Amino acid sequence: MTLNAQGGGVLNLQVAGATIINLAGTATFINDTADAQNTSGLTINQLTANNQALAFKQNSVAHGLTSAGGQSMETDTWFAVRQIVANGGGWQSEIVAETGTEIVGLFQFYNRDNLNTTKSTAGRGAIEFDVRQHDGVNALANVVADGNLAVIRTHAAGAVATRFIFDTEGSGHGDVEWVAFAAHNDLAVLRSFESLMLTHQRFGQDML
Predict the structure, then answer these.
(1) Could you tell me the pTM of the whole model?
(2) Distance from C-alpha of 184 to C-alpha of 174, rounded to nearest angstrom
(3) CA angle, residues 139, 145, 151, in degrees to nearest 5
(4) Which of 43-47, 107-111, 131-135 has the lowest mean pLDDT?
(5) Dihedral (CA of 8, 10, 15, 20) sign
(6) What residue spans define the domains of the chain?
């Protein structure tokens, strides 16, 4: 292991002749020495590895979910990022908490002084997900018709199942139903009222 101080404010840590960490001015590189899009940030090159690129741990965490989740994790790892397709890219992140802890697994604050109120295809939001297709040669392509932009899945009855789908045409699809927050099911109440009124109507007719 050697630590080399190079010109231009560059500090280079090498193991067996290979650069492991490179500090170039205000930028930091791991397993790399340059990134044209990084002037004051962090670049991590996994080389040929396809497992975790980033992992956060805490000594007091011991969730026990080490291989049955979306990716293999050590028991004290509570957040990890890896490629979703080996050698193909994509982002797969996983959050794990111990059983019996806070019911919220992912919580994010967003604070600003104003929000967009436009209700059209030009509307913007405090939180946005922008899903795009590309042609593989540095140009965007239209999303395929009926393409699923976002999917919500869950593990139920021993298998993974899709419950909600949002597609590129702006349609929302639910496996069972969409229900508004309410003390009672409005449709069920209307049906009960209708049944009750019909009963009273027949009773009145029988009295004539």
Answers:
(1) 0.73
(2) 20
(3) 95
(4) 107-111
(5) negative
(6) 1-45, 49-107
